[in-house]
Design brief:
The complex is a heterodimer of chains A (116) and B (317). Chain A is mainly α and 116 residues long. In chain A, 86% of the residues lie in helices and 0% in strands. Chain A has one domain (22-114). Chain B folds into 2 domains: 3-102; 167-316, 60s Ribosomal Protein L30, Chain: A (2-Layer Sandwich), CATH 3.30.1330.60. The chains are: A mainly alpha (116), B alpha+beta (317).
Chain lengths: 116, 317
Amino acid sequence: MMRFVSTTLLTLSVVACGGSSLPPAKVADTQSSISAAAAVGADQNPQAALHLKMARDQLKQAQDLLADGKDDQAKLVLERADADAEVALMITREAEASANVKKTQGDVQALQNRTP
Amino acid sequence: MKLTQLLCPLTLLAAFGCAATGPSPELIDARRAYDSARQSEAATYSPDKLLTAKQALERAESAHADDAGSFEEKSLAYVAQRKAQYASVYGMYEKDRRDQAEAQQAYRDKQDLLRRNAVQQATEAQRSLAATWDNLSSARKEIAAQQTQIQKSQAELDAEKQARAKAEQSAAAALASLSKIAQVKEEQRGVVITLDGQVLFVTGKAELLPIARDRLNEVAKSLKELDDDKLVSIEGFTDSRGADDMNLKLSQDRANTVRDYLASQGVKAEKLRAIGRGEASPVASNDTPEGRANNRRVEIVIQSSAQAAAGLSSAKR
């Protein structure tokens, strides 16, 4: 009896491993990318917010696919989520940098105007 | 079976196959995005990100070649499109950072310039202030010198005033002592010292009696005490006896004698003026011996310049 149980558990675990080839760290990485984008304020930038929403939706979709054992598709969808999170982050940073440049250039102009 | 009959279904199959292997909309978007990224700032500022985008596109192309229209192709194309977009935005971001660095440098340069200008202006202002201060110091010194001069002048004035007061006192004292030997009166034409003719001259002559010299010495002493601006008019008078012209000449001679004597005793000659009035302006009746005695006289009139001028004009009248 014990031998049967052990064999069954071993078989099940082999099957499980084969069905879930995606390491859990991958999901965590995507979650980190999304958090990083949110942390820089991507939700406040309309264009970045759109990408962030797509990233979150795709993360959810990937988790659903994982739950359904569709690991290969989940992996691809996670990549998409990652790519959107990266774009959201970069759009936010670029907007901030662009605003900083405009401000500094404005400051330079103001100094220029003060020059007798 | 002819070859054409065999090829026709194959061609159709191939044509069908080609239609089925066309790129997905995602792949078309990815290619466009990559082309756009290549022409963006990414080419200059983020070539590594552009390379990543290219590799992502190649993966999508490969997936398309392997299994056109597959979920994998669409997903990888989607990712490739995002990587290309990321590369473009990253290029802009890098350019922003460089622009920012340049703007900050320009700001610092401008600030330095303004600071240098301000320092220069402050230095010039300081120099100008120093010059003004020097001028002020010079002016102060000048004022102090002028004040000293004024104080000195004031002291001189005071001394002069004191000297004048003293002189006037002396003159008053002298006149007071004169009143013992002569009649002294304050009149509009000046201070008039009247000397009796009888005690001065030999009768009918312009010759001084010995006693007259003592009296005239006293008069001379008083006149020497007078201020420089005083003038002395010596006027001779006779009584009415005798011819008018004789009397006029005698009175003139007597006035001259007195003038000369006073000058010989140290009274400044330029202050002295001798006038003969003859029998004019009697002070008493010529009908009695006493009256005539009073009319024979010499008047010494001490005048200021203004009084002398008035006296002259009245004499001319």
